[in-house]
Amino acid sequence: MKRLITIVILILINGMAGAAPAMPQSKAVKINERVYALLGPMGQPSVHNQGYMVNSTVIIGEQGVILIDSGASDEVGKHLANAIRKLTTKPVTHVINTHHHGDHVLGNIVFGQAEIISSEICRDMVNKTGDEWVALMESLIGHKLPNTRPIPASVTFAGENSRVERTIQGVKLVFWVPKGSHTVGDMMVYMPDDKILVGGDILVNRTIPVMRDASVKNWAETLEQVQAFDASTIVPGHGPLMQLQDVSRLQRQMAAFYAGIEAGYKKGLSDSETRKTLDVREWKKLEGFDANIGSNVSRTYLEIEQSSF
Ligand SMILES: [Zn+2]
């Protein structure tokens, strides 16, 4: 018996030694009396951050809370729920997903009572790719996520190029589904009374835009349209809060990137030859440059190649 207890204790100690590091805290930034940004740490999902690296927006309405983007797992979702509890005792009644990538939707499962809202295409993409995203997250953070399941939206807004205005919990919201930019089915949320725009990953700050699933030409056009909003605060999908001038800088960079690759293609250069001709000094300052610049060039090159047929 004594031996058994010793063995059990040894197993427990071993288990603790292998335990994952604690999830980093979010940074709550109060934008106005009813809207907070919960800024996640920068970087890719990893063992170190336990998959927590997304920005979320918390809108405290009349009876309940609207949460925009729910995190990369049930664990991140719970982490966000705890952070929300520090801001209000009201329950989360609505969750909005800006796009289908796992870091933005896999926390939905924690908010089972809430209405989940996204674009139609985003809902379809969650159904199609959700399980792959869970597996990818597990491999990036180094442990299984037995309680994470993709939960698609129950309420959706129409297809591309639509704007729908709704008042939810007494808060006026404009749901804007632009032409697929960062992903197909992107959706942004504008609060006209608060002058706040929530951009999902169409808008990222101090971190390189990830183009793996993107349509780069649309993205540059969407960034132009963003500037027509009278937004005084912009919550990006990743990185610190932005202003409209940051959007105009991102727009210029994106358009120049596309034009540079298009020029290479037209000269008959391959994608790797084209890459050498690009001026990437501005991109190089951004988080995630090394991990993404190659696939960003390839993706854009492929897009241009396909559109020329
Ligand atoms: Zn993201």
Care to describe what's here?
The chain is α/β, with parallel strands linked by helices. It has a single domain, classed as Metallo-beta-lactamase, Chain A (4-Layer Sandwich), CATH 3.60.15.10. The protein has helices at 2-17, 74-85, 102-105, 120-141, 216-226, 244-266, 271-277, 281-284, 289-307; strands at residues 27-30, 35-39, 56-60, 65-68, 92-96, 115-119, 155-157, 162-168, 171-177, 188-191, 196-198, 233-235. It has a 7-stranded mixed β-sheet with strand order 1-2-3-4-5-6-7. Strands 8-9-10-11-12 form a 5-stranded mixed β-sheet, with no helix packed on it. The chain is globular. Zinc ion binds at residues 54, 101, 103-104, 201, 237-238.
Summarize the structure.
With 309 residues, the protein is α/β, with parallel strands linked by helices. It has 9 helices and 12 strands. Bound molecules: zinc ion.
Task: Label this structure with key terms.
single chain; 309 residues; alpha/beta; Metallo-beta-lactamase, Chain A; 7-stranded mixed sheet; 5-stranded mixed sheet; 12 strands; binds zinc ion
